[in-house]
Each structure stands twice: as structure tokens, then as C-alpha cells.
From TrEMBL:
<dbReference type="InterPro" id="IPR010445">
    <property type="entry name" value="LapA_dom"/>
</dbReference>
<keyword id="KW-0472">Membrane</keyword>
<dbReference type="Pfam" id="PF06305">
    <property type="entry name" value="LapA_dom"/>
</dbReference>
<protein>
    <submittedName>
        <fullName>Lipopolysaccharide assembly protein LapA domain-containing protein</fullName>
    </submittedName>
</protein>
<keyword id="KW-1133">Transmembrane helix</keyword>
<feature type="region of interest" description="Disordered">
    <location>
        <begin position="1"/>
        <end position="52"/>
    </location>
</feature>
<feature type="domain" description="Lipopolysaccharide assembly protein A">
    <location>
        <begin position="82"/>
        <end position="135"/>
    </location>
</feature>
<keyword id="KW-1003">Cell membrane</keyword>
<feature type="transmembrane region" description="Helical">
    <location>
        <begin position="62"/>
        <end position="81"/>
    </location>
</feature>
<feature type="transmembrane region" description="Helical">
    <location>
        <begin position="101"/>
        <end position="124"/>
    </location>
</feature>
<keyword id="KW-0812">Transmembrane</keyword>
Length: 141
């Protein structure tokens, strides 16, 4: 019978194994054998919790994004509906009138497009730099 470190010691047990071997006091070291991990049964191997489903994580993320996008859209529509005061706009010689909410929406869209343009240029710059580094690396090998 094998006794593990967390099992109570049996005083009448005279059997010796590597886990329960008695070591003389002068040879005692700080090393204690780690308890062995329990072996997986067929039930554990076949259970759905044993294999993580990575597709569900992606699908869950898509649902979270969809719900957040819908909430932002609803809030934006409420903002536009509450800010219907007509505002006169003069831009590059053009004169027109728009509701304030729509005007702010157009300004936000224009800002997002300008930001995306700069981000696209930066991505292209980094790609060119990486391509140049790969070419130099290939030449040196």
C-alpha cells in the first residue's frame, strides 16, 4: 500500500516505497516528492469541459460587438432626435442648413475617416520597413 503525503500515516505499515521511504536524520534534505497527478479517466477525456471550444469564444465576442454597436447606434439616434435645431453652416463658400445632431454626426464621421487615413499611412510605412528588413536579412544569410 502506497501512502501519499496528504494521507494519514499508518503506524502499522512496514512496507517501504520511494514515496514513503524512511531517510536517516543526517541525510534529510529539503526535497519533498510532489504528489502524483490523478490519472484522467475515459469520462474526463470525453467530457465537453476537457476540450475548450475556441469557436464559441469568437462567436461570443462577435455577439458582444454586435450588442455594443447596437447600443451605440441607439444612443446616436437619440442624440440626433433630441438635437433637431437647424443650424446654418458656411463651408468653403457653401451655405446650407442642417440639424445640429446631423452636423455633429458628419463631423465625427469626418474625424474618423481622417484618423483612418493617417493610420493607413502608418501601416504602409511599417510594412515597407518590415519588407526592407526581411530583404536585408535574406541578403546577409
Amino acid at each position: 500500500m502506497t501512502t501519499r503525503s496528504h494521507d494519514p500515516a499508518d503506524a502499522g505499515n512496514t512496507e517501504s516505497s520511494p514515496e514513503t521511504a524512511v531517510v536517516p536524520a543526517e541525510n534529510v534534505t529539503a526535497e519533498v516528492p510532489a504528489p502524483s497527478a490523478p490519472e484522467a479517466t475515459d469520462h474526463d477525456r470525453l467530457s465537453p469541459q476537457a476540450v475548450p471550444d475556441s469557436a464559441a469564444g469568437r462567436l461570443g465576442s462577435a455577439w458582444v460587438g454586435l450588442v455594443l454597436g447596437a447600443l451605440v447606434t441607439i444612443l446616436l439616434l437619440i442624440f440626433i432626435a433630441q438635437n433637431t435645431t437647424s443650424t446654418d453652416v458656411q463651408y468653403l463658400g457653401l451655405h446650407f442648413s442642417l440639424p445640429l445632431g446631423v452636423l455633429i454626426l458628419f463631423a465625427a464621421i469626418a474625424g474618423a475617416l481622417i484618423m483612418a487615413l493617417f493610420a493607413g499611412f502608418r501601416i504602409l510605412q511599417l510594412r515597407m520597413r518590415a519588407r526592407k528588413a526581411r530583404k536585408l536579412s535574406a541578403r546577409s544569410h
